[in-house]
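Notes from hallway chat w/ T.B., transcribed later so I don't forget. T.B. wanted the structure written out for a chain they're using in a teaching module, and asked if we could keep both sequence and structure tokens in one place. Agreed to drop them here.
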Amino acid sequence: MKEMRFGIDIDGTVTCPTSLIPFINEDFSLNITLDDIKTYDLSEALDIPMERFRDWFDEREPVIYSSSPLAEGAKDVLLKWKEKFQLFFISARRSHLLEVTEKWFDEQDILYDRIELIGSHDKVGAAKEYAVDLFFEDKHDNAVSIHEELNIPVLLFNTPYNQDPVPDGVIRVDNWAQAEKWVEAWLHSKKRIHQLD
């Protein structure tokens, strides 16, 4: 039995947060970069009517997900962790996209214990159900609510759209190398506390 369970968001965390940008630029005749997106709600960030953006996203989602590049450093870290921890990928993607998602994971050669597509941004229930010890996220309010409801650390991957203040148990990291370093220090401190008990 592996010692720890990690809950990990997919989009903007395992995948590169710029994944949607080329599609948005092409389909809406824009020329934006990630730095232009200051809020998680893309229809608001881009001043595109919500209904129009939702219809577009519903149509383009499978193509975007199947071609999303990996976040830099994610694969190396996740491959190492798969040997020591249980990896539960918990995403707001809807369940009909499970086949596309599993195929992408297979093509990227990323192993997992479970992929859970909950169709909602409220990940607290799934994180609780799978009793994860630590969570990795890019959406600010998700990170805060998971930390506050479950009293577990959440690593928030820094992006221009998640810059609101965070409580102490939400730890900002810039990349997977920093995440790995933080996890090593966290595990070391937990081990020391356990030895003192």
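Follow-up for T.B.: Helices lie at 21-28, 42-46, 50-67, 74-82, 98-108, 124-129, 140-150, 176-196. Might be a good example for the class.
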